[in-house]
Amino acid sequence: MRYYGWPTYVTVAERRAKAEKQLEKMKKKGVAVQPVALSGRKIAASFWGKGWCEQMESFSDYANRLPRGRSYVRNGSVCHLEIAAGRITALVSGTTLYNVVITIEPLKASTWEVVKGACSGKIASLVDLLRGKLDDSVMEVVTDRKKGLFPLPGEMKFDCDCPDWAGMCKHVAAVLYGVGARLDQSPEMLFVLRGVNHQELIDVTAAVADATRAGSSRRRIAATGLADVFGIELADTGVAEDPPTLAPPKKGVPEKKSTPAAKKSEAERTAAKIAAVKKVSERHVVKKSLPENHLPEPFTGKILYAWRTSLGETQTEFAARLSLSAGCISQWESKGKKPIGMQARSRLLLEKAWKATHKD
Q: Can the keyword Zinc be found in this entry's annotation (predicted)?
């Protein structure tokens, strides 16, 4: 029943029930639905999530509409939200299920250069970047209201198929808050949205220098150590141990001259070491003649990206499927057409997931 031309009020429970029915239909059609689910009243808790919400709330143009959006996202009305380069698509439950599209201009090249300049030599870890563990000077630049990574009102366009004539309806406002919640889980999606590569902010040289200074000057950094430093995974490599330190000969004691027999013995030991290293290396060589349900060889970043997107999953969701970190997935996908080097354990996890998603 309508009163004075306004539609009958629909309770939150009724909206959810309707939305769930429609989402079930979408799932049956193969659509990978990504709802925004909050664990409590707080919409965003991370550096990037809170930064996004604070940026949206800082504009007076949005002041009247954002509060309704907060209510909608808190009661679970954002049934689906997907972030891609320059575009946010979402489904919001209202009187019916509304389609929301937000287009965002890519970050200006000049702004990105300023951000990279501010970060130069100050971010040594992908994990630190995504967790928002940044130097104060870096934080000041990336969160700058007008020249930071977050978009301005003039860089965003909203579209919702609801009957509300306003530029920003409550459904759009709910999606904007939903983006803040999503950045808590997948902070790398902010960089995807703005069309820039977040790995350009990481100073690998500084990370290696910091790691080597932490230990003795002679100690090498193991592959697992580097993985912890960068928040990514490095390929299996044979790392030779440091040669033993030779004590200087004592005064008055003549040095022993090497005899032919000693030289032969030394040559045999060297050959044995080479054979042992070769044997270890051969263990990690993947045969190219693999069945169809095995990983393609060579396995490239382009293949990984195509696989993930065919499943309709974000890097974080895909990483969870593989029991790996989102940083690994991001690093591997950045390889493009180049083969991915990885540890034996990771290859086994990828093999298992590949078989599960490529069943005949």
A: yes
In this predicted structure, what is the pLDDT of residue 156? 94
Q: Output the furthest CA–CA distance in the chain (Å, rounded).
A: 112
For residues 171 and 60, membership in a common domain is answered with yes
Domain presence at residue 182? yes
The pair of three-digit structure tokens given for residue 206, joined into one six-digit string: 């500084």
Full-model pTM: 0.56
Per-residue pLDDT reduced to its tens digit, 171-193: 999 999 999 999 998 888 999 99
Q: How far, in whole angstroms, is CA 24 from its chain's centroid?
A: 28
Tally the domains of the chain.
2
Domain hosting residue 84, numbered range: 12-107+149-196
Which are the contacts of 22, defined by CB distance < 8 A and separation ≥ 6?
A: 79, 97
Q: Listing from the earlier edge strand, what are the strands of the sheet with 97-104? A: 78-84, 87-93, 97-104, 156-160
Q: Residue 271 domain-assigned?
A: no
Concatenating the DSSP letter of every residue in 197-234 gives -GGGG--HHHHHHHHHHHS-TTPPPPHHHHHHHHTS--
Q: Has residue 264 been placed in a domain?
A: no
Q: What CATH number is attached to the domain comprising 320?
A: 1.10.260
**What type of residue sits at position 79?**
C
